[in-house]
Specification:
The protein is an alpha/beta fold. It has three domains: 3-127 and 303-338, NAD(P)-binding Rossmann-like Domain (Rossmann fold); 152-298, Dihydrodipicolinate Reductase, domain 2; 347-431, Alpha-Beta Plaits, CATH 3.30.70. It is built from 14 helices and 17 strands. Helix 1 (13-24) crosses helix 12 (303-321) and helix 7 crosses helix 8. The chain starts with a strand and ends in a 5-residue tail after the last strand.
C-alpha cells in the first residue's frame, strides 16, 4: 500500500490527540484513503516528556528542519500556535513544497494572506479547519458543500470559555468574576484568559469565516472587538425578562460593497437556535441564497475534537496527493484572482437594535429627559422596563430601541450622560433581532 508521510510541529494537547487518532483509527483511515498515513517526525522542544502515547524510535526530534526540510514528508501539521516562530516555519515548509495543515487561528487571521500567496505560488495546500470551531466542519461546509451559495451572513458562538461563563451567569444569576474563576478551576479558561474573555480569540475566527463566506481579504485590525468582562448579572436578568439571551456573538454580514465584521456581547431572542447553545459548545449559523439558514453545532475545542478537524484536513490533502498533488479546492474557496478587498463597515455606521440601562436619580421627569435626548437623535423606543426594586436614591431604567445607527446612539448617550439625573455610565448591549 502506498504511503503519505506526515510531519508534526508541536506535541502538546492537540498534537497528542492527532497521534492518538492516527494510531486508534489507522485501519479506518486506510479504508477511506486506500493509502497508509505514516507519522514520520514530530518536532518538539521536550523530547523526553511522557504524553501517554507510544511512538516508533526516532520519530521525536528537537530539530525543526527534520520536519520542514525533510524530503520524505508530504504534509506538515503545525500545532505550535502563536505568531512566531510558527509563521517562519510554515513559510519555510511551503518553500520546500510541503502541504500545510494548521490549527493556528491567530496566524491565519493576521498573516493568512501572506501564507496563502506563498502556497499558491508553490502549488501546495494550506488547510485550517481546526482553526475555527474545533470539531465542527464549518470551513469545509463553506468551501465545498455550500459553495453554490452566496452568503448574506454568518453568525457564530465561537469561544467555549465565554459561552460557559455566560451560560452559568444566566442559569445561576452569578456575577462574572466567580464564574470566570470556576471556568479556570475546571480547565475551560486559561490562567490568563484575556484572549478569550476580551473577544480576541473570537475575532480571529470570524475574520477567517468572513473571508471564506464573502470571498474577501479581511483586515483583522479593523474588526470591532468587545469582550464579556463588563457583562453584569443584572443585565442578563433584564434580558431574560425581555425574552432575550446574552451571547458573545461573532457577526459577519455582506453588503456587496462592504462587509460587517464585529464581535461583542449580543442579545438574541430566546427563539433563536443560537440562544440554545450552552456550556462550552460552539455553533455557526449561515444564510445562503439557495440553502437558506444552516446551523452547525458541536465541540469547539478540546484534544479529540480539534484532532478530528486536523485529521480531516490531512485526509483531504492526502486524497489530492493521489491525483497528482494539485489542490482540488482553492485555499479560501475562491480562485485567487476572484478574491476581493471589501472594506469593513465603520462601527458608527452599523445599524442595530440597542439595549440601554440607565442608573438615574429616583425622581420625576427622568424618563422624559432621557427619551428627549434619544428623540433629538431620531432614536425611537421599542419597549421599556422599570424594575420596582430600587437602590438607595437611584433607580434603573431599561430601554430597548428600534433600529438605530451606532453613531446616533453614541451621540445620544453622550448627551444623556451630561444630565444631572444620570448617576453612572450607560450600559449598552447590541441586539441581533433579524427575522429567523
Amino acid at each position: 500500500m502506498d504511503t503519505v508521510k506526515v510531519g508534526l510541529l508541536g506535541f502538546g494537547t492537540v498534537g497528542t490527540g492527532v497521534v492518538r487518532n492516527l494510531q486508534i483509527n489507522r485501519e479506518l483511515l486506510q479504508q477511506r484513503l486506500h493509502r497508509d498515513l505514516v507519522l514520520t517526525r514530530i518536532a518538539t522542544r521536550d523530547v523526553n516528556r511522557d504524553r501517554g502515547v507510544e511512538l516508533e524510535p526516532g520519530v521525536l526530534t528537537s530539530d525543526i528542519d527534520e520536519v520542514i526540510a525533510n524530503p520524505e514528508i508530504d504534509i506538515v501539521i503545525e500545532l505550535i500556535g502563536g505568531d512566531e516562530p510558527a509563521k517562519s516555519y510554515i513559510l519555510k515548509a511551503i518553500a520546500n513544497g510541503k502541504h500545510i495543515v494548521t490549527a493556528n487561528k491567530a496566524l491565519m487571521a493576521v498573516h493568512g494572506q501572506e501564507i496563502i500567496a506563498a502556497a499558491d505560488q508553490q502549488g501546495v495546500s494550506v488547510m485550517f479547519e481546526a482553526a475555527v470551531a474545533g470539531g465542527i466542519p464549518i470551513i469545509s461546509a463553506i468551501k465545498e458543500n455550500l459553495c453554490s451559495n452566496k452568503f448574506s451572513s454568518v453568525l457564530g458562538i465561537l469561544n467555549g470559555t465565554c459561552n460557559f461563563i455566560l451560560t452559568k451567569m444566566s442559569q445561576e444569576g452569578s456575577d462574572f468574576a466567580p464564574v470566570l474563576q470556576e471556568a479556570q478551576d475546571l480547565g475551560y479558561a486559561e490562567a490568563d484568559p484575556t484572549f478569550d474573555i476580551e473577544g480576541v480569540d473570537t475575532a480571529h475566527k470570524i475574520a477567517l469565516l468572513a473571508a471564506l463566506c464573502f470571498g474577501t481579504s479581511v483586515d483583522f485590525d479593523k474588526i470591532y472587538t468587545e469582550g464579556i468582562s463588563k457583562v453584569s448579572a443584572i443585565d442578563i436578568q433584564f434580558a431574560e425578562q425581555m425574552g432575550y439571551t446574552v451571547k458573545l456573538l461573532a457577526i459577519g454580514k455582506n453588503h456587496d460593497d462592504q462587509i460587517e465584521v464585529r464581535v461583542h456581547p449580543t442579545m438574541i431572542p430566546k427563539t433563536y437556535q443560537l440562544a440554545q447553545i450552552n456550556g462550552v459548545f460552539n455553533a455557526v449559523r449561515l444564510i445562503g441564497d439557495f440553502a437558506g439558514p444552516t446551523l452547525l453545532y458541536g465541540s469547539g475545542a478540546g484534544m479529540d475534537a480539534t484532532a478530528s478537524a486536523v485529521m480531516g484536513d490531512v485526509m483531504a490533502v492526502s486524497r489530492d496527493l493521489t491525483t497528482g498533488g494539485k489542490p482540488r479546492v482553492p485555499i479560501l474557496g475562491y480562485n485567487a484572482d476572484a478574491i476581493r478587498n471589501l472594506p469593513i463597515m465603520e462601527m458608527g455606521e452599523v445599524v442595530s437594535h440597542y439595549y440601554l440601562r440607565f442608573t438615574t436619580a429616583d425622581q420625576t421627569s427622568v424618563l422624559a429627559k432621557i427619551s428627549g435626548c434619544l428623540g433629538n437623535h431620531d432614536i425611537s423606543i421599542q419597549s421599556m422596563l422599570q424594575p420596582e426594586v430600587r437602590e438607595i436614591n437611584s433607580v434603573s431604567i431599561v430601554i430597548m430601541t428600534h433600529e438605530a445607527k451606532e453613531a446616533d446612539i453614541n451621540a445620544a448617550l453622550a448627551e444623556i450622560e451630561q444630565l444631572d439625573v444620570v448617576l453612572q455610565p450607560t450600559c449598552l448591549i447590541r441586539v441581533e433581532n433579524a427575522p429567523l
